[in-house]
UniProtKB/TrEMBL annotation:
<protein>
    <recommendedName>
        <fullName>Histone deacetylase domain-containing protein</fullName>
    </recommendedName>
</protein>
<dbReference type="InterPro" id="IPR037138">
    <property type="entry name" value="His_deacetylse_dom_sf"/>
</dbReference>
<dbReference type="GO" id="GO:0004407">
    <property type="term" value="F:histone deacetylase activity"/>
</dbReference>
<dbReference type="InterPro" id="IPR023801">
    <property type="entry name" value="His_deacetylse_dom"/>
</dbReference>
<dbReference type="GO" id="GO:0000118">
    <property type="term" value="C:histone deacetylase complex"/>
</dbReference>
<feature type="domain" description="Histone deacetylase">
    <location>
        <begin position="1"/>
        <end position="142"/>
    </location>
</feature>
<dbReference type="Pfam" id="PF00850">
    <property type="entry name" value="Hist_deacetyl"/>
</dbReference>
<dbReference type="InterPro" id="IPR023696">
    <property type="entry name" value="Ureohydrolase_dom_sf"/>
</dbReference>
<dbReference type="GO" id="GO:0040029">
    <property type="term" value="P:epigenetic regulation of gene expression"/>
</dbReference>
Length: 159
């Protein structure tokens, strides 16, 4: 399963896995911005098109609902999680209005989803075109650690 929560519609992995029923793609993105790749969009299993200006509360509510749908539709063996920070309010490219706290909650929701599925998760950071993105990522990882979603082992982060 690919959970793509970068502000931009994924198109590389969507084109790579088009027609492959072994891969379930949940993509929540701002449909007003680049790349608007309509061919790749057809490969998205679960597509959620947001509009510019979507707020934290609306975003998190939508994510919770979509994770419920995904849970009943697919049972992953591995989750690749694209945790873009271009969803942050003030990002010059993302167009969404998500707070730093909202990013932390988003990440926690996805990690809890993986835990409920008894599924390993790989989190990749992406997007984020402001100086505060790195700090938001660090804060989110610290939150995930504090909440027991991940642990810091001697060789790095694990679960």
């Amino acid at each position: 399963m690919i959970i793509d929560l970068d502000a931009h519609q994924g198109n590389g992995h969507e084109r790579d896995f088009a027609g492959d029923k072994r891969v379930y793609i949940l993509d929540i993105y701002n449909s007003d911005i680049y790349p608007q790749d309509f061919l790749a969009r057809r490969a998205i299993t679960q597509k959620v098109e947001l509009r510019s200006g979507t707020t934290t509360s609306a975003y998190l509510h939508q994510l919770q609902e979509e994770l419920k749908v995904a849970k009943s539709a697919f049972h992953p063996q591995l989750i690749i999680y694209n945790a873009g920070t271009d969803i942050l309010a003030g990002d010059p490219l993302g167009g969404l209005l998500i707070s730093p706290e909202g990013v932390k909650e988003r990440d926690e929701l996805v990690f809890r989803f993986a835990e409920e599925q008894s599924c390993p998760i790989v989190m990749v950071t992406s997007g984020g075109y402001t100086k505060k993105s790195a700090g938001v990522i660090a804060d989110s990882i610290m939150n995930l650690t504090a909440k027991g979603c991940i642990t810091l082992g001697s060789t790095g982060i694990s679960k």
